[in-house]
Amino acid sequence: MLNETVFLQQLQSKNSKEQAFRELITQYKERLYWHIRHIVKSHDDTDDVLQNTFIKVFKNIDNFKGDSKIYSWMYRIATNEAITHINKNAKRLQITNEETQELAINNLQSDVYFEGDEIQLKLQKAIATLPEKQQLVFNMKYFQEIKYKDMAEILETSEGALKASYHIAVKKIQDYLTKD
């Protein structure tokens, strides 16, 4: 991967934007897919949100000032798009966001793209019981191994707050998994 400043210049240049954007998609598509997938659960919904994320990135790259890493900026867009998607689904189905999450978890069992076993399913159910912010922090740290420093940039909050959220989330998940 190129130097981030040079890459950003290519993304913002009319002459090299399309080629640089293809490179951006190649570099980040899989990581963003899994980030979104952990939020919305469904493969089809993830594909939709991922597409919307890249459309937003493409449309707004010229306004990106480089205050954060491109990666962090894209993760923030992906996170917001995923949450917006959940909110729209909840509104469309006239149910709460929590019920939307529960529905998504229940649909995981019949999702041909879900390769998890009973334990994975139970973990997903435990994660779904967490408040939205704790879900995000847990998924980013546990599944994607994102550093707190990068997470702080993506979620625009302090590392200390993220560490506390993660610790609380882990405790709640442990309690959920051992309650039976």
Automatic annotation (TrEMBL):
<dbReference type="InterPro" id="IPR039425">
    <property type="entry name" value="RNA_pol_sigma-70-like"/>
</dbReference>
<dbReference type="InterPro" id="IPR014284">
    <property type="entry name" value="RNA_pol_sigma-70_dom"/>
</dbReference>
<keyword id="KW-0731">Sigma factor</keyword>
<dbReference type="InterPro" id="IPR036388">
    <property type="entry name" value="WH-like_DNA-bd_sf"/>
</dbReference>
<keyword id="KW-0804">Transcription</keyword>
<dbReference type="InterPro" id="IPR013324">
    <property type="entry name" value="RNA_pol_sigma_r3/r4-like"/>
</dbReference>
<dbReference type="InterPro" id="IPR013325">
    <property type="entry name" value="RNA_pol_sigma_r2"/>
</dbReference>
<protein>
    <submittedName>
        <fullName>RNA polymerase sigma factor</fullName>
    </submittedName>
</protein>
<feature type="domain" description="RNA polymerase sigma-70 region 2">
    <location>
        <begin position="24"/>
        <end position="91"/>
    </location>
</feature>
<keyword id="KW-0805">Transcription regulation</keyword>
<dbReference type="InterPro" id="IPR013249">
    <property type="entry name" value="RNA_pol_sigma70_r4_t2"/>
</dbReference>
<dbReference type="Pfam" id="PF04542">
    <property type="entry name" value="Sigma70_r2"/>
</dbReference>
<feature type="domain" description="RNA polymerase sigma factor 70 region 4 type 2">
    <location>
        <begin position="121"/>
        <end position="173"/>
    </location>
</feature>
<dbReference type="InterPro" id="IPR007627">
    <property type="entry name" value="RNA_pol_sigma70_r2"/>
</dbReference>
<comment type="similarity">
    <text>Belongs to the sigma-70 factor family. ECF subfamily.</text>
</comment>
<dbReference type="Pfam" id="PF08281">
    <property type="entry name" value="Sigma70_r4_2"/>
</dbReference>
